[in-house]
Amino acid sequence: MTFFKKALSIRSDDFSSTFGMGMIYRRLGLSEEALFWLEKCIAIDASHQPAMTAFIQVARDYRHPRVAIALLERVIETIGERPALLTALGQIYVDQGLVERGRELLTRAAS
Question: Model-level pTM?
Fold first, then answer.
């Protein structure tokens, strides 16, 4: 982690270091920190599938569904709709009992 912090102090938008931080925090079970760094990764490179997958997995498992919804919606607003993001968001809405909203997002993800 020290290496990544040093690299980020030199270049704050370094993708590899940002991704590394997100994955370390994810591995440690520190979801808030992992989500912060993985969201930053996606903003730098939305095409990086491992970062997207890790972000979605942490968001789906996050203990505060309303925060996860807000994070997913913010990423969608930043990079545009992606089926995986819409699916994760739709699933959280369904899990929270907001079935119609969830179904709408899942339908958009599938089309």
Answer: 0.92
Crossing angle of helices 83-95 and 99-110, rounded to 10°? 160
Per the listing, tokens 């709408």 go with 104
Within the chain, where are the H helices? 2-10, 15-27, 31-44, 49-61, 65-79, 83-95, 99-110
Kindly give the confidence (pLDDT) of every residue in the chain, 111 residues in length, as a single tens digit, with 9 standing for 90 and above.
888 888 888 998 999 999 999 999 999 999 999 999 999 999 999 999 999 999 999 999 999 999 999 999 999 999 999 999 999 999 999 999 999 999 999 999 999
Q: CATH topology for 2-110?
A: 1.25.40
